[in-house]
Structures are given as structure tokens and as C-alpha cells.
Amino acid sequence: MELENQAQLQKEGAATAKREPNVPKKLAEMMNKQGYRFVGRHSATKTCFYTTSSLKEGGYTCYKHQFYGIRSWRCIQATPAIGCNLACSFCWRIIPEDEGFKWNEMNAMREWDDPKDIVDGLIEEHRKLINGYKGNGKTVMKRWEEANDPAHVALSLTGEPLFYPSMNGLIEEFERRGISTFLVTNGTMVNALKNLISMPTQLYVSIQAPNKEVYGRTVRPKNIAATWDNFINFLKVFSGLRTRKVFRMTLVKGVNMEDTDGYAELIKVGKPDYVEVKGFVYVGGARNPKRNLEFSQMPTEDEIKNFAEGLADKSGYLYTTYHKHSNVVLLSRDEDAQRNRIIRFKK
Predict the structure, then answer these.
(1) Domains of the chain listed by start with CATH number
(2) Which helix (H) or strand (E) holds 321?
(3) For the packed helices 115-131 and 3-12, what is the interaxial angle rounded to 10 degrees?
(4) Which of these, 258, 234, 232, lies nearest to 311 by C-alpha position?
(5) Cα 282 to Cα 19: distance, rounded to the nearest angstrom
(6) pLDDT in tens, the chain (347 residues)
(7) Whether 321 contacts 47, CB under 8 Å
């Protein structure tokens, strides 16, 4: 984009950008050190490893590039709602309670920022974050230029995006700019899902457990609404939505990597187009001693592939491909889904 357009964008987003994030100050400082950049009162972005790696000659691209055709260097990783109502044991993100913060994430907001201001601010911060790569000798300049005109946003950075009450407007604002949306929800907010009229390009739900007993100890819910029965109701609503739908499984040995029959039953309920079977990674917040996790609980490549093959057999889904660097297998609902998984994007 031309410099004058960038200047105009910065001016338009100034009001939102100046608002202080509705996060405890010390928590905000921790997140800033980890690379988060806040936009307004409740949104944030952080450059994904694959975004910066794919800018360089010979760098890695993410599993979404291999699975669905996403151009990693043109993707923003973001959230319109920093807070979350779960404290999943395997999550690599900061969980405030684990760090000693008493912050009521579910009831923190009284006012919400405008979708246009959020999108303006996210694009502005994204450009700032990748700006330094222009001077890197390994950077592919064509990709860097394209990265300044983002074509994709993954609404999955942290928190639960469906907390944001104007999600329809946010999706429409991204759509208006030709930016595809990959929205990831934790499967707890049934009413918000029912109110979703403007569909994202691809809608994910995190599948954290195969049964009620494993669910409780894995997601560690912060409020009474996050129950197994509520989760099942969410999947029933999810199954009827008219957009590309994905189950995202993060498997931890000794925690939730069991009961393929249970996971297969969930697939029958939710009817996703795709299932991503991913190995847990012992990084970030997952290393906090309060989580009681260890490096040895990361599944190996063979273990993930074998689990995925077993799940494919039980569910009738097709084993489609494997992304080695992320240790994740893609299963497709049928041959049509397998054949049509690469999305035709607007930009």
C-alpha cells in the first residue's frame, strides 16, 4: 500500500490505539515482552513464527499453507477478545491465574471497540511488527511487500474471540477489505455461535477431550457455563452452519490422547469438513509448573500419525496429509473435501 494510505490508516485507528488495554498492568507488561501488541481495550496481535519465517528465503510456512493454501507471510495472528473462560492445561499462552493475577476476564469489559477501529489497528500493528524484516538480508522483498497488504487473519491468538459481541461486524469488515478469516473458538459460547450470521472463511472449534471426565481436567473451566453438556450443544449448532468447518485437536500424552471412539463420536455430532490432529508442544505457558506437564508428554511424529490413522478408521474420514514442522495430520470428511481443501482467496 502507498505511504499516504498507510498514514491515513494510522490516523483512522488512532482513537482505538490510544485506549489503554483492559488488562492488569503487570500482565500487559509480560505480554508485551512476549511480542503481543495491544489494539484498543480488548484486542491484540502478535506475529506468528511462520509469518516471519516465511518472509525469508527457504523459511518455513505453516500447516495452513500446506493444508488450505494460506500464504503465511500475508497472515495476521490476532484476537478481538483477550480474555478466556477456560484454562486449558496444554495452552502455550499466559493464563493469568497461573501467574498470580486475579483478573475477572469474563466480566472485564463494559464497552467494546468498533470493528473498523479494531481492523485498522490490527493492520497497523502488524505492519510495525514486520517492518524490521525489510532490512534482513534473507528476506524475500516481494513477500515482504505482500505482507504489508495482509490477505488472511487468524482470530486465534489468545482468549475466546466469540466474547466480542460485534463478531458479525468484524468479519464483514475483514471481508470488505478482501481479508479471509479463520476463526477459532473453544466451543463454550453457544448463544454467540447462534448469533453468527456473517460466516468466517473457515470456522474452527477446539476439541480438547473425547469424554466428560477428560474434558474437566483438561480445559479447567473458569465458569459454570463451560460444561461438557454445553460443549455438546455447541457442536450440534456448529454442525448446521454453512461455512467450512474444522475440528482442531491438540493431543497431550497422559492427558487427552486416548479414546479414539469418543473423538469419533464427537465428529459424528459436529460433522466438520476437516479434522486437524496435532501434537502438544511444551512451550510458553505450558511449561508453568502449575500445569503439571512435562517435555516427555509431547507426542512423536509416529504417535500422531498412528492416532490419526486410528481416528480416520473409526470416523470414516480420510487421512489427507501431514505437516512435519507442526506435527499435525489433516483428515478430510470425504473425497470432495479432500479435493477442494485449497481455498481460492480474493487477494
Answers:
(1) 3-339 (3.20.20.70)
(2) strand 318-323
(3) 130
(4) 258
(5) 34
(6) 433 444 444 444 444 445 788 888 899 999 999 999 999 999 999 999 999 999 999 999 999 999 999 999 999 999 999 989 899 999 999 888 888 887 766 666 678 999 999 999 999 999 999 999 998 999 999 999 999 999 999 999 999 999 999 999 999 999 999 999 999 999 999 999 999 999 999 999 999 999 999 999 899 988 776 799 999 999 999 999 999 999 999 999 999 999 999 999 999 999 999 999 999 999 999 999 989 999 999 999 999 999 999 999 999 999 999 999 999 999 999 999 999 999 999 88
(7) no
pTM comes to 0.92
Q: Which amino acid, one-letter code, is at 237?
A: V
Burial 54-83 (b: 16+ CB within 10 A, else e): bbbeebbbbbbbbbbebbbbbbbbbbbbbb
